[in-house]
Automatic annotation (TrEMBL):
Keywords: Nucleus
Biological process according to GO: ribosomal large subunit biogenesis
Protein name: Nucleolar complex protein 2
Biased composition (Basic residues): 1-10, 22-41
InterPro entries assigned: Noc2
């Protein structure tokens, strides 16, 4: 709050009529401009000067100097009306001086470096000084506008400043307490007063105080941070965090609404004077949310923080630093947190990808795929469900914009092909698509070279891209687009070439689980894209090898989990457990039970 602001300013700010008053002033401004234009035209014409012969040149200059003096005046001086002569009241528009004052506020706001005092936000609500006096004169000065208010905005005419006298005095005492050296303690009563102002009036002043307290809570235990409030109660701390998370999007949506387009993308709100003034406070709050999220351990609080902060993305997409930090935090939660938090983080990432800015979409696609690949490095019975969730959710993001996803998909599938080529140690330089037409299996690769392919990251990458292409090129998805093929469809053939080349890399019995994973991905891809993929040459060698074992060895080994195995241990070879498990699994994939019986790939 600016120290020079008057008590009447605080009264009007608490009335909750700011938005309506601004709209009324704009309407009034348009009417007064027409009146001013007509009167100016009369006085500037030669006929008008003859009719008003008593007016001399000195009076004209005096009126010109009065109009120039409007520039640079404060809101209090201007709305007080002391500089206006009674004869000129119907000529001067109060909106002109207000615009000049708002420009001055922009310059003052740039000099505020302390997050803990967003004084310019309060100025947005300091536009109602002497409001009752203006309304009392409005019926005589502008009957047309007064009639408009009676019909459309009766609450503005019935404005009673005495109803908020008590709240204004309490707020003044609160401001005085914050200006002292002693850090005040946040209580439930203070927090409830802010909540009431936010709910009933959508008060920006209350929002500013709430976010200052939230910043104190986010940096409460840090020695190098100067905080404005002390929170010594766990219940008050939780209530403060929840209030800031839930109420901030509501108030911002009320003052600066944004649009959601028909295609699901959102458009950032218009850069009005109010939004420019609020921008610094919004970014400060957004960074504090990211900071406090890294300190939370409760899944419910994490879910709330991620889901509510996602509602502020339209207001921060213009800041690349904020977007990168938020995306990094969401990807971390998406790949490591509880399932409910993972879903909330995914929804936040998807909303971020819904921005109309293409560069943000590229950041989301790249970050999502890299986070998925890092999480797939180790696969076990405990991590497999979360990996499946990540693959299915990430495939949805890649199918939001096929044209943007094509560039990333092509590059990453090509990277898989390069790993396969290095494992094969091919000497001839051929094109990307025809890398695997001729494979010399007479000289198998060394153990170190095939490790670039025989790993979980390669397997999950093949399966992920098969999910993406199957979702994008599905018959139903194609029909929704009017029968037009997806931009990702040309990548089906290169992906199949990479997968079949990896299957032919090593063809011993210990590698059959690796082959099963890739074959399952190809079957899923073939079914959804209606593309014929010759899989019999890859299934028959497995059947032949298994049938050749006429008398499998009995063993007390536990059953082999094919879902979490890509290379069979040596002791399982030739045993009945391995042979029967492989026969049953291959029978399901061959079509006896259908794809629905296979848990892999969603």
């Amino acid at each position: 709050m600016v120290k020079g602001s008057k008590k009447a300013t605080r009264k009007f700010a608490q009335s909750g009529q700011l938005k309506k008053t601004i709209q009324a002033r704009r309407k009034h401004q348009q009417i007064q401009k027409k009146i001013t234009k007509k009167q100016t035209g009369k006085k500037s014409g030669a006929n008008a000067r003859e009719e008003d012969g008593e007016e001399d040149q000195d009076e004209v200059e005096e009126k010109g100097s009065k109009s120039k003096s409007l520039k640079g005046m404060s809101v209090d001086d201007f709305l007080g009306g002391g500089f206006i002569d009674e004869d000129d009241e119907d000529v001067v528009s109060d909106a002109e001086g207000l615009d000049e004052d708002e420009e001055g506020e922009d310059e003052d706001e740039e000099g505020l470096d302390d997050d803990h005092s967003f004084a310019s936000v309060d100025d947005l609500e300091d536009e109602g000084v002497n409001h009752l006096e203006e309304l009392s004169k409005l019926a005589e000065k502008d009957p047309e506008f007064y009639k408009y208010l009676q019909e459309n905005d009766r609450e503005l005419l019935d404005f009673d400043p005495n109803a908020i006298e008590e709240d204004s005095e309490e707020e003044a005492e609160e401001d005085d307490a914050m200006e002292t050296d002693k850090i005040p303690v946040l209580t439930k009563q203070v927090l409830q007063k802010w909540q009431k102002a936010l709910l009933e009036q959508r008060s920006l002043r209350a929002l500013r105080k709430l976010l200052i307290a939230f910043r104190s809570a986010a940096h409460m235990n840090e020695e190098d941070q100067v905080v404005a409030w002390t929170v010594d109660s766990p219940s008050v701390y939780n209530k403060l965090v929840i209030t800031a998370l839930r109420y901030t999007p509501v108030v911002l949506e009320h003052h600066c609404p944004y649009k959601t387009l028909a295609n699901g993308k959102f458009k950032a709100p218009a850069q009005t004077h109010k939004l420019k003034t609020l921008q610094k406070m919004i970014l400060s709050y957004f960074h504090n949310v990211i900071h406090i999220t890294s300190q939370m351990s409760d899944p419910d609080m994490l879910k709330l923080a991620v889901s509510e902060s996602a509602k502020l993305l339209p207001y921060v997409v213009s800041s690349r630093r904020a977007v990168k930090q938020y995306l990094k935090a969401c990807l971390e939660l998406w790949s490591t947190a509880d399932d409910t938090v993972r879903i909330a983080a995914f929804l936040a990432i998807r909303k971020l990808a819904s921005a109309t800015d293409e560069s943000i979409m590229d950041m989301v696609l790249k970050g999502t795929y890299l986070a998925l690949v890092r999480s797939c490095k180790s696969t076990s019975a405990h991590t497999l469900p979360s990996i499946l969730l990540m693959k299915n959710s990430a495939s949805e993001i890649f199918c939001m914009d096929h044209a943007a996803a094509y560039q990333h998909a092509f590059g990453y599938i090509r990277q898989l092909a390069i790993h396969l080529r290095n494992s094969m140690k091919m000497k001839t330089k051929v094109g990307f698509i025809y890398l695997f037409v001729s494979t010399d299996l007479a000289h198998p690769p060394s153990q170190e070279s095939f490790k670039q392919v025989y790993n979980w990251q390669f397997v999950h990458s093949i399966d992920f891209w098969s999910l993406v292409l199957a979702r994008a090129c599905d018959a139903q998805a194609t029909a929704e687009k009017g029968g037009e093929d997806s931009a990702l469809k040309p990548l089906v053939y290169p992906l199949v070439q990479v997968a079949t080349g990896a299957i032919k890399l090593i063809s011993n019995a210990r590698s059959f689980p690796f082959h099963f994973h890739l074959l399952r991905s190809l079957i899923h891809l073939s079914r959804h894209t209606r593309t014929y993929i010759p899989l019999a040459p890859h299934l028959l060698p497995i059947l032949t090898t298994l049938l050749a074992t006429s008398k499998p060895k009995a063993s007390t080994l536990r059953p082999l989990d094919f879902d979490t195995t890509i290379r069979v241990p040596q002791q399982y070879l030739g045993t009945r457990i391995y042979t029967e498990g492989a026969d049953a699994l291959e029978g399901v994939w061959a079509g006896e039970g259908g794809w629905e019986e296979v848990p892999w790939g969603g």
